[in-house]
Amino acid sequence: GNKNSGGGAQSGASLDMATLTKQTLKSAQAIRELQHCVADSYMGSSESIVVQNIQTTLKGYHERVRSIRSEGEDKDHDLGPPHLHAFGALIESLVEMTKEESLSKELLGISTSWSGMSVAESDFYVRTCKVEKCFKSTMKRIVLSVGATAVAARWRSTIDRAMKEGGWKRNVGKAPPGAMERNLQRFVDRGAGGKQQ
Fold first, then answer.
1. For 150-168, what is each residue's pLDDT tens digit?
2. Strand partners, 133
3. Strand bridging mode 169-170 / 139-146
4. Which residues are bridge partners to 143 per DSSP?
5. Given pLDDT bands bounded at 50, 70 and 90, which one contains residue 14?
6. In this structure, what DSSP letter does residue 31 have?
7. What residues does 41 pair with on adjacent strands?
8. What are phi and psi of 178, to 5 degrees?
9. What are phi and psi of 131, to 5 degrees?
10. Angle at the Cα of 86 (from 83 to 91), degrees rounded to 5?
11. What span, in angstroms and rounded, lies between the C-alpha atoms of 79 and 65?
12. In whole angstroms, what is the distance from residue 113 CA to residue 87 CA?
């Protein structure tokens, strides 16, 4: 009786793990699809001034947040989320590195508008801006998502041109599965194969 009970528990645990793995795999696939729909992704050198400025800016941001919280103040602060600071650093970097005059003027216009916005307004226009690791240590990925407004659409076009002028390559299409997703897929495939046998 105990052996049967134990076997049933193990079988149930295996079933739960298989279900959880499939759900996690579907979530990972959905996230890739969603990111492709709402965000632009660029590949470039990890030594780029864009990467360096964003990372330096975010380091300063997190140090300020830690300082505020260490003083016993309320955990809420008026600095806004980190992606807004990353976007400001991105624009400043593009202004600095862009040589084409008309494009430079457009970037300066974005910078001026951005500096005059409140946190709430800024977050409405820019939803995410971050630097991610790539499969090559010498490369970084910048992921940017702007709001669906006419102004944001113009910003997106200007930034895209400036990124390409700066040597950044815009990724086209949905991103390929990452290491975790590939491992999950192999696990699911092995489970399906075992059932068929």
1. 888 899 999 999 999 999 9
2. 140
3. unpaired
4. 41, 130
5. low
6. H
7. 143
8. -85, 180
9. -105, 130
10. 125
11. 8
12. 13
- Going through the chain in order, the beta strands assigned E by DSSP cover 40-45, 126-133, 139-146, 169-170
Any idea what the Cα angle at residue 25 is, between residues 11 and 147, rounded to 5°? 150
The reported pTM is 0.72
Residue count of the chain, please give it.
197
Distance, CA of 42 to CA of 174 (rounded, Å): 13
Task: Please state the φ and ψ torsions of residue 16, each to the nearest 5 degrees.
Answer: -60, -40
Higher pLDDT, 113 or 73: 113
* pLDDT mean over 117-127: 92
pLDDT digits (tens, 9 = 90+) for 19-49: 777 777 677 666 666 565 668 999 999 999 9
Residue that is written with structure tokens 């990452």 in the block: 178
* Distance (Å, whole) CA 195 – CA 184: 17
CA-based R_g, the chain, Å: 23
